[in-house]
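Record 1 of the preview.
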Amino acid sequence: MSFFIRLNISSFLYAWFPFAGIELMANVYRLSRVTGWGLDHVNVMILVFFFVGLLLSGFGFPKLIRHWLGGRKASFFSLVLWIPYFIILTYTVAAWFPIMNPADKPNPVTGLIAIAVLGLYPFYLAIVHLFGTGVSGSERSGL
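->
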């Protein structure tokens, strides 16, 4: 598989984590209504999803970069390429699953939290990416 395809697949995976988190956060009332769970239970489940996603991406993304993308410096393009995938995913969900019940509309604060998440996520990706493209200990010692 060519590097270009692997780069785009990794960019899609980068877009998936904030997309899933923001969509879960924006659809708390809908999830509560559809599943029959209380709002407290839904919020705890979303918080668990956030922490599990943060751990998985924190350990998985550097391995993905190092092994699948070869730790190449060109893999830094994925720090920008995730944005179109995020927009496409968000638009697709908004078009396919519109809010029909007025009680399912998210709180206004949810938008502020989403802005904060999307503002900090590129910095998180850059730090994780540096770990993925970094030189391993055996390469530093000349072995």
